[in-house]
Write a structure and sequence with these properties.
This protein has helices spanning about 15-45, 60-95, 100-120, 140-170, 180-195, 195-210, 220-245, 250, 260-270, 290-325, 330-335, 340-365, 370, 375-385, 385-405, 415-440, 460-490, 520-540; strands at about 255-260, 505. The protein is mostly helical and about 550 residues long. It has one domain (about 15-540): Cytochrome C Oxidase, Chain A (Up-down Bundle), CATH 1.20.210. It has a two-stranded parallel ribbon. The structure holds heme-as (HAS) and copper (II) ion.
C-alpha cells in the first residue's frame, strides 16, 4: 500500500499573521539583493577597465564595494529567502501552521543581523570580503551581525522541526510528505554545517575585534570558514532543488519522477556537503596532502546527487512538455510554459547551472585547480552556480510566492520573462569573459580597472565581463521594478491561492526499505561520523598559532 508522495491536503489556509512575516522575510531578501547589485555592476565594469567607483557616495575602496556585494548577495539574500521559503513549504506540506514565536524570532534576528553587519560595511569598517579571512579585521558589529544571521537560520529550522514533530505525533507511522522532508533536510544539513563558522566568529574573531583577544590563528579560522563554507553553497542550492523537484513539475504539468530517489539525493547532500571544505584550500600550507585528497574524493561524491538531479528534473520537464502536446526527441522543450515567468526563470536557472557544474569539476580536480585558483575563473564558476541556479530560482519562486503571500497579482509577467532572459544571457557573456580571463591568469578580487599590469588576452575577456555584467544589471532592475509595482499596484484578484505541489510517478513505500530514509536523526549521526573522519585528523594534529594581530588595509 503506498501513500501519495507529496501531501496535498485540502482546505489548509496559511494564517494571515504568518503570511505577513513570511512576506517581509522575502522583502528583506529582495532589499539585500538590491544593495548588492549596484556593486556587482562596478565589479564587472572594473574587469572591462572602467572605474565607476566615484559614483558611489561614501565608498572608500574597491574592496568595500566587493565586500558589500558578497555579503549582501551570498549571506543575507540567500538566507533571508530560505528563512521564508523553507518554513513556508514545510508548513504547507504538513498542513500545519508554524510556531509564531519562532517565526518572529527568525525575522528579527535576521533583520538586526543585517543592519549590524550593514552598519560596519557602509562605514568601511568591515572591508574583509565575504570570506572574512583573518588577519583582515572587521568592526565587532560585522561579526556579531553575521552571527545573528546564522542564529536566524537556526530558529527557522527549529520552527520546521517543531512543526514536523507536531505532525508526526498526529500521524504516527506515516511517511513524511516529500516536500516537507526535503525542506527540513536542507536546513538540517546547514545546522550542522554552520557550527564551525559560529565557533570562528564568536569564539575568535569577535573577541579579537573587541580587543579581548590580542591574536588569532589565520589558518585555523580559514579552516573553520571553509568547514562551513563549502556546505554553505549547498545551503544556497538546496532550496532551489526543493523548488525544482517538488514544485516545478506541477508548474509545467508533469510529475516528480521518483519520491525515493529525491529523498536519497537529499540524504547524500546531508552526508557529503560538509566533509569537502579543503577543496577551497588545496594551495594552503599546514594541511596534510592526504586530507586534501580525501576531500577531493568526497567532492566528486557530492557531484553525483546534482547529476542525479539533472536527469530527474529533465525527466519531469519532459513529462510536462509531452503532456502539453510536445512530440519528437526535443519537441517537448518548446511546449514547456516559457511564457510563465516563474517557470521560464527557473528553466534558465537550470540551463545556466549545467556550465556551473562543469566548471566545478575543474575546480575540484586537485592539480588542475592550481591553474584556476584565485583567478577570474572562480567568480566565473560561482556566478554560474549561486548567480544562476540559486539567484534565478529565488527570482522564479518570488514570481509566484510574492503574489501568493501578498494576495496581489504579478505585475507585467511578459516583462518578467524578458528580464530573466536578459539576466541569463548577460550572465553567460559575463561568465564567458571571466572564465577565459582566468585561464589567462587574470586575478580575482583585484581592481583590474586600475591595475598597472595586464596580459594580451585580458582585454576581450574583461570587455565580455563588462558587457555581460551590464546586461545582467538591467535584468535585475526589471525584477526590482516588477516587485515594486506588484506591491504597489498589483490587482487584488488572480494571485495564486495555493502552492504548486507536485505528485510523484513513483511514490514512497509505507514499510519498505526506503522508509528508513525518514529516520532523519540516524542520517544526521552518519553525517557527523563522516565529518569526524574528514576533519578529525586535522584538528587532532594541529597546534594553533595564535600569533596574528588584526589588520585594516582598505
Ligand atoms: Fe563551487 C568554488 C567545486 C557547485 C559556489 N564554488 C566556489 C566558490 C563559490 C562556489 C561561491 O572543488 C568560490 C568560493 C570563494 O570565494 O573562494 N562547486 C564545486 C563542485 C560543484 C560546485 C564540484 N559551487 C557549486 C554550487 C555553488 C558553488 C552549487 C553555489 C550555489 N567550487 C568547487 C571548488 C571550488 C569552488 C573546488 C574552489 C575553487 C578554488 O580554487 O578556489 C558541484 O557540486 C557542481 C554539481 C553540479 C552539477 C550540475 C547539475 C545540473 C543541473 C541542471 C540540470 C538542467 C536541467 C535543464 C534540468 C552536476 C541540476 C533542462 C532544461 C531544459 C529546458 C531542457
Ligand atoms: Cu566548495
Amino acid at each position: 500500500m503506498s501513500t501519495p508522495v507529496v501531501y496535498d491536503p485540502k482546505g489548509f489556509t496559511f494564517p494571515d499573521p504568518q503570511r505577513r512575516v513570511l512576506q517581509w522575510s522575502m522583502f528583506i531578501a529582495i532589499i539585500a539583493m538590491f544593495a548588492g547589485v549596484a556593486h556587482g555592476l562596478a565589479q564587472a565594469l572594473s574587469y572591462a577597465g572602467i572605474n565607476i567607483l566615484q559614483y558611489f557616495p561614501g565608498l572608500s575602496s574597491y574592496y568595500q564595494g566587493l565586500t558589500v556585494h558578497g555579503v549582501a548577495q551570498a549571506l543575507v539574500l540567500t538566507f533571508a529567502f530560505s528563512n521564508g521559503f523553507l518554513p513556508l513549504v514545510t508548513a504547507r506540506a504538513l498542513s500545519r501552521p508554524l510556531n509564531m514565536a519562532l517565526l518572529h524570532g527568525t525575522f528579527w534576528f535576521l533583520l538586526v543581523g543585517f543592519l549590524l553587519a550593514g552598519y560596519a560595511l557602509l562605514t568601511n569598517q568591515a572591508s574583509v570580503l565575504y570570506t572574512s579571512y583573518a588577519p583582515l579585521q572587521a568592526h565587532p558589529t560585522y561579526y556579531l551581525g553575521l552571527s545573528l544571521v546564522v542564529v536566524s537560520t537556526w530558529l527557522a529550522s527549529a520552527n520546521m522541526f517543531v512543526t514536523l514533530r507536531g505532525w508526526r505525533k498526529e500521524h504516527p507511522g506515516e511517511r513524511i510528505p516529500l516536500l516537507a522532508y526535503i525542506a527540513v533536510l536542507s536546513y538540517a544539513m546547514w545546522d550542522l554545517a554552520s557550527i564551525p563558522i559560529a565557533v570562528s566568529f564568536l569564539g575568535f574573531l569577535l573577541p579579537w575585534s573587541l580587543g579581548w583577544l590580542q591574536h588569532v590563528d589565520p589558518l585555523l579560522n580559514r579552516v573553520l570558514f571553509w568547514f562551513t563554507g563549502h556546505a554553505i553553497v549547498y545551503a544556497w542550492l538546496l532550496p532551489a532543488y526543493v523548488s525544482w523537484y517538488a514544485l516545478i513539475p506541477r508548474q509545467v504539468g508533469g510529475k516528480l519522477v521518483s519520491d525515493p530517489l529525491t529523498r536519497a539525493v537529499f540524504i547524500l547532500f546531508l552526508l557529503l556537503s560538509i566533509p569537502t571544505g579543503f577543496h577551497h584550500q588545496y594551495t594552503d600550507p599546514g594541511i596534510a596532502t592526504s586530507m586534501k585528497a580525501f576531500h577531493a574524493l568526497l567532492t566528486f561524491g557530492v557531484f553525483y546527487p546534482s547529476l542525479a538531479t539533472a536527469f530527474s528534473v529533465t525527466a519531469s520537464l519532459e513529462m510536462g512538455g509531452r503532456a502539453r502536446g510536445g512530440r519528437g526527441l526535443l519537441g517537448w522543450i518548446r511546449k514547456l510554459p516559457w511564457g510563465d515567468p516563474s517557470v521560464a526563470t527557473q528553466l534558465l536557472a537550470m540551463l545556466t547551472f549545467v556550465l556551473g557544474g562543469a566548471t566545478g569539476l575543474v575546480n575540484a580536480s586537485f592539480t588542475v585547480n592550481q591553474v584556476v585558483h584565485n583567478t577570474a575563473w572562480i567568480p566565473g564558476h560561482f556566478h554560474m552556480t549561486v548567480g544562476s541556479a540559486v539567484l534565478l530560482t529565488i527570482i522564479g519562486v518570488s514570481y509566484w510566492a510574492v503574489p501568493y503571500l501578498t494576495g496581489k497579482r504579478l505585475w507585467a509577467p511578459k516583462l518578467a520573462v524578458a528580464g530573466s532572459w536578459m539576466y541569463a544571457i548577460g550572465l553567460l557573456i559575463f561568465a564567458r569573459g571571466l572564465i577565459s580571463g582566468g585561464l589567462q591568469g587574470m586575478p580575482r578580487r583585484t581592481f583590474i580597472a586600475e591595475a598597472t599590469y595586464s596580459a594580451s588576452g585580458w582585454k576581450l575577456a574583461g570587455a565580455l565581463a563588462g558587457i555581460g555584467g551590464t546586461i545582467m544589471t538591467i535584468g535585475m532592475l526589471i525584477f526590482f521594478l516588477i516587485m515594486i509595482m506588484t506591491f504597489l499596484v498589483g490587482k487584488r484578484d488572480g494571485a495564486p491561492r495555493d502552492i504548486p505541489i507536485s505528485e510523484s510517478l513513483t511514490p514512497p513505500s509505507q514499510n519498505g526499505w526506503d522508509s528508513t530514509m525518514d529516520r532523519i536523526g540516524v542520517w544526521v549521526i552518519v553525517a557527523v561520523v563522516l565529518i569526524l573522519l574528514a576533519y578529525g585528523p586535522f584538528f587532532l594534529s594541529y597546534t594553533p598559532n595564535m600569533v596574528s594581530p588584526g589588520f585594516k588595509l582598505f
